[in-house]
Design a protein that fits this description.
Chain A: GO terms for molecular function: RNA binding. The complex is a heterodimer. By secondary structure, chain A is mostly beta strands. Helix content of chain A is 5%, strand content 46%. Chain A has a four-stranded antiparallel β-sheet, with no helix packed on it. Chain A has a four-stranded antiparallel β-sheet with strand order 6-7-8-9, with no helix packed on it. The chains are: A mainly beta, B mainly alpha.
Chain lengths: 684, 217
């Protein structure tokens, strides 16, 4: 298989942003997650929880709430604005100032005709949802104190609003407050501290469920205004509630990191005396849980520890299957690291800046497992801070290291880098006006062209040179899909360009003729990474369901190897991995090798070796070496896995055949999170 | 029973008071004689008086204790702030040397009402979740506890970068307002008659705060 010198890189200080809120769309099976930095991510629950889309954040957006209305996504934040997102172009479509101060909550009625927002100034504002926009209708009666949470009654006739020390029920038609439910403050020392009702739920039978800062979940009768039941679930705050669609289950998220489930069940067989009973407690987070979504089969939670956790409910799914496994999504499903293979440079993408690093050098040789002495330390060459409020969406570094580009939702910037005695970076000022709304960037291997994906999966081609940046061509496809391109790659010989969009379409363009060459047959799982082999010009694609395909660009059909793999089937250990493959690279010395990685392992697929059996165990190389030779040959199959490095942000192979492994241990991220609650544990 | 409890509670800080005011009046008498008869009214008055005295004493002691605790808290706060001040002076001087090399005068955006309101709202969340009385710990401690209680028990977590999980994090949690206050109080309070100079100083102060907040948060 070969030995590699490995550059083990741990200086990418990637810090994910806390999950602030989420909303699940049961029609489309998409989960929208809003982060503290204003970014919105869309996960496809039908496609192995793949993170399909990322809308970059913006300084000051401070998103507090998300809301789906049909296929439309709205958010509201502490900047006082309601934003509707353009999910085809991955940007805010427009923003509307509610003129009520910071907005704490947003919710639509069940018909999808009105949006209610809860504001800092104590008003609940109603907006009409029109075709291309929203329009302010009226305010409900103003109350003293901020409106922290609200929920429509399924009939759209009432709104329950959670405030400080109380819950107010409004008549949505007249705007009058019809009832006030007074919430008790905490017992003991915190009696002077006001209790904040962080979340409310309103059921069809007029039951109101509230979660507050005193750690209580309370069940109220909304018609009589009386308290039915109180559950003290935590010493800290209950930050969020979510009601299931059939209203039989409610989940509550706390500052302790627990998610508590309540179910409407009866204690007797005849099912007549149902009541809300506390059932399960899930402990899947180390920090505050501030976002929840209750799907038909699972409990989805997220919070200050930045991880998205999907916990299937074991009474809704088949036990001991892939379906019932706990899923934790801690890293993005796309690569944030660019590698200039010829120059030995790394580009790290942060929301607010780019960092260009030169890899270090070592001397001497060693045996596998040895740590070589470092002759020259890695060096940060450039730190480029973005201009403006919009966060960086994508970036690219040319293979020679001489060109750097990044884009935000509002602009594209191109820089020329020169390496003499000192590093100099110069912005290319006049860019073609066609370079707008760019989602992916990629340089050609000879650094003469820049490819930028734009609206409706089109690709803008511009020529870059010392003197200028000139628009060349726009490549378009014929399917009529309006979905954005999330993967873009160019072949080494400069002839081919491949794009993949979130409609699972992969298009191939001929760059010599500057036109569409063909489209790969659509596979119903979204590709997570694509790459073109430098020698064979075959396109390798790996999908969210972990399937691998190889497509010959010249023949316009799947290769023999790919057909054989499909016929045999991938081994189950491969298919059960729960993080997507985010990068593919090739070995210049051995064209049979395909090197790919996910968060927990990297793998070298040797196309000259036989496929493993479906139930084969994947031994790592250390274990294999310890086996007797005869057994070793029997284990010799195409998939060589290495789990020595974690958590992987990128694995790449340089021109000098050394491997670059960029790791970001989860512990490093955890240590820099905000403070968790202090739990008193026995015997500590 | 209430009087007895009061005596017990105050016994921690004050010498146990002799229950000198007993409920029966005793006179010099021989063993043979029956005890002096006391009227119901007298003994009732006596009981009420002693109870009132006990309540007064307890109340006084509580006040004293409260006062003492408040003074101690203030002292700790001052010490903390002075340490913070010192650290801020260090950071400030570092920043000046950094800025001296590439110092440019920039005009800071006017603080609009909207951004002020947003600031207030953000401070509200921070004080509710991380403010006093919220009982938080450091990531260091939490991870160490996990190590100690996990299946494979191991030592406490010690980070290579000493400031991880501790001071830096707590700085991040200080509200913007209090950070600003801190900076302002540690800023040399040179009263300037020149309005323009004062304005310039204020602008530089805001710029510095933003710079620190941006780099620290």
């Amino acid at each position: 298989m070969g030995e590699f010198k490995v550059h083990r890189v741990r200086f990418f200080d990637y810090m994910p942003s806390a999950i602030r809120t989420m909303a699940f769309n049961s029609q489309t099976e998409r989960l929208a997650v809003a982060r503290a930095d204003g970014a919105v991510e869309i996960f496809n629950f039908n496609d192995n929880f793949f993170q399909e889309k990322v809308i970059p954040g913006q300084d000051g957006r401070a998103t507090e709430a998300l809301c789906w209305v049909g296929h439309r996504l709205f958010s509201a934040g502490l900047n006082g604005e309601i934003t509707e997102y353009d999910l085809e172009n991955l940007r805010p479509q427009y923003t509307v100032d509610a003129y009520g101060g910071p907005i704490w909550t947003i919710s639509s009625n069940s018909q999808g005709t009105q949006l209610a927002v809860g504001c800092e100034d104590g008003t609940v504002k109603i907006f009409a949802i029109l075709e291309e926009r929203i329009q302010f209708q009226r305010n409900l009666n103003r109350h003293k104190g901020r409106i922290i949470s609200l929920c429509w009654h399924p009939s759209s006739a009432q709104i329950a609003a959670g405030m400080t020390d109380m819950i107010t029920i409004f008549d949505a038609e007249t705007g009058h407050a019809t009832r006030r439910l007074l919430v008790d403050r905490a017992m003991g020392a915190s009696k002077n501290k006001e209790v904040v009702v962080w979340s409310v739920g309103y059921l069809s039978d007029h039951t109101i469920i509230s979660g507050d800062s005193a750690g209580k979940v309370q069940i109220w009768n909304g018609l009589t205004g009386t308290l039915v039941r109180t559950y003290l679930v935590t010493k800290w705050d209950v930050l969020v509630l979510s009601v299931s669609k059939d209203e039989s289950s409610v989940i509550a998220g706390t500052s302790e990191g627990t998610v508590i489930q309540f179910q409407f069940i009866s204690s007797t067989m005849d099912q007549h005396d149902k009541e809300w009973v506390r059932t399960r407690t899930f402990r899947n987070h180390s920090h505050d849980v501030s976002a929840l979504a209750h799907t038909d089969t699972a409990v989805v939670s997220g919070g200050m520890d930045t991880q998205l956790v999907v916990r299937p409910l074991l009474d809704k799914v088949e036990k001991n299957t892939q379906e019932s496994a706990l899923r934790k999504i801690a890293f993005p499903h796309r690569s944030l690291v660019g590698c200039a293979k010829k120059a030995g440079l790394l580009l790290f993408q942060f929301p607010d800046r780019l960092e260009l690093w030169k890899l270090g050098e070592s001397e001497g040789h060693g045996k596998p497992g040895d740590r070589l002495p470092v002759k020259r330390k890695p060096e940060k060459l450039i730190e480029l801070k973005r201009k403006g409020e919009d966060h960086i969406c994508c970036s690219a570094l040319s293979a020679c290291g001489g060109w750097l580009a990044y884009s935000t939702v509002s602009s594209v910037r191109l820089y020329r880098i020169q390496y003499n005695n000192t590093i100099s970076i110069n912005k290319v000022s006049k860019l073609p006006k066609e370079l707008r709304s760019v989602h992916q960037l990629c340089f050609s291997s000879d650094s003469s062209k820049l490819f930028a994906s734009s609206c409706q999966s089109s690709v803008i081609v511009v020529a870059v040179s010392q003197q200028e940046c000139r628009y060349l061509h726009t490549l378009k496809h014929k399917t009529g899909s309006r979905q954005p391109v999330h993967l873009l790659c160019a072949s080494d010989d400069g002839k081919w360009l491949a794009t993949a969009n979130t409609d699972c379409e992969i298009h191939i363009y001929n760059l010599h003729k500057m036109k569409l060459h063909c489209m790969v047959p659509v596979y119903n799982s979204c590709p997570t990474t694509i790459a073109i082999h430098p020698v064979t010009n075959n396109l390798i694609s790996v999908h969210a369901d972990q399937q691998i395909f190889e497509f010959s660009l010249v023949q316009k059909e799947y290769t023999q190897w790919s057909r054989r793999l499909q016929a045999q089937g991938l081994l189950s250990l491969w298919l059960e991995r729960d993080t997507p493959i985010t990068h593919i690279t090739f070995n210049p010395k051995n064209p049979d090798h395909i090197i790919l990685h996910d968060t927990y392992m990297f793998c070298i697929i040797d196309q000259s070796l036989p496929f493993p059996e479906l139930n084969a165990v994947l031994w790592n190389q250390m274990t294999l070496k310890s086996l007797p030779v005869s057994q070793r040959i029997g284990q010799s199959h195409a998939f060589k896995i290495c789990k020595s490095f974690q958590h992987l942000m990128c694995v790449s192979l340089l021109e000098d055949l050394s491997l670059v492994v960029v790791e970001r241990p989860l512990l490093d991220i955890m240590s820099q999170l905000p403070a968790p609650v202090r739990q008193k544990k026995f015997a500590t | 029973e209430t009087a007895a409890r009061l005596f017990l509670s105050s016994s921690k800080t004050v010498d146990i008071e002799k229950p000198a005011e007993s409920f029966t009046l005793s006179l010099e008498s021989s063993d043979d004689e029956a005890p002096e008869e006391v009227t119901f009214e007298d003994s009732k008055a006596e009981a009420l008086r002693s109870m009132k005295q006990a309540l007064d004493t307890a109340r006084r002691e509580k006040q004293l204790l409260k006062e003492r605790r408040r003074k101690r808290q203030e002292l700790f706060q001052e010490q903390k702030v002075s340490v913070c001040h010192f650290k801020w002076f260090q950071i400030l001087s570092e920043a000046w040397t950094l800025l001296k090399g590439k110092y440019t005068v920039t005009t800071v955006k006017e603080r609009t009402l909207a951004s002020f309101q947003q600031q207030v709202a953000e401070e509200f969340i921070r004080s509710r979740l991380y403010g006093p009385g919220t009982c938080r710990t450091t990531n260091n401690e939490m991870l160490s506890l996990q190590n100690k209680k996990g299946w494979n028990k191991s030592a406490a977590v010690q980070f290579v970068k000493k400031d991880w999980g501790t001071f830096r994090t707590s700085l991040r949690l200080m509200t913007r307002g209090s950070l600003l206050q801190l900076l302002q109080s540690s800023w040399c309070n040179v009263s300037s008659k020149d309005k323009k100079l004062k304005k310039e100083k204020k602008k530089t102060l805001f710029f510095l705060t933003d710079y620190f907040l941006h780099s620290l948060l």
